Amino acid sequence: MDLESREKAENKILLLYFMDQVKIPVSNMQLTRIMLENRYMNYFLLQQNIHEMLTDGLIVSETKDNIDYYSLTSKGLKMLNLFSNLVPFGIRKRIEENINVIRSVIKLETSIVAEYTLENENEYEVKCRIVEEFKPLIDIRLSVGSREDARSICFNWKNHAKEIYPQVIGVLLGKELENEES
Fold first, then answer.
1. pLDDT tens per residue, range 135-156
2. What domains are there in the chain, each with its CATH number?
3. Which helix (DSSP H) or strand (DSSP E) does residue 85 occupy?
C-alpha cells in the first residue's frame, strides 16, 4: 500500500472510530469542526472521505430539519473492527478522554435551535426550538419588526431556553396561575 492510500485509509478509519465512540448522529458542520480543531485532517480530505464513505456504505446520512447527520453502518463497524489498529494510539486516547464532553456539546448544539429569516422589508420570522432526540419539545415562531430584535431573541433563546421552556409549559398548564393564587 502506497503512502497516500495508507493515509486515506487511516483517515477513514479515524472517522469511523470517532462516529463509533460518539454514538450519536453527527452533522457535517460538527464533524468538520471537531476534525479541524483537533487537526486530524484538513477540510478537503474530510469532505472527500465523507463522500466516499457514504458511497461505499460505511456511513449513512439522515436529513433532519435540512441538516445531514452521519452515523456508522454495520458495514462501517465491520471495517472499523478489521482496521482499528490504523488509528494511532495517541489519537484514540485523546478521543476517548474527551468523548463525553464532545457528545454533550453535540447534543446541546442540536437541541437548542434559534434562527431568523427576512420575510419582507419590515418583518423577520424568528424560529426557536428545543429538540430532544430529533423530536421537538417546543417550536415557537415569532414575527418581529427589526433584525436587532430577531438577533436578540435568538441570542436569548440560545442562552435561556432551558429556563424559558418550563415556564412556558407551566403557564400553558395553568400551574403558574395556581402558584400566584396560593
1. 788 899 999 999 999 999 999 9
2. 3-87 (1.10.10.10), 111-181 (no CATH)
3. none
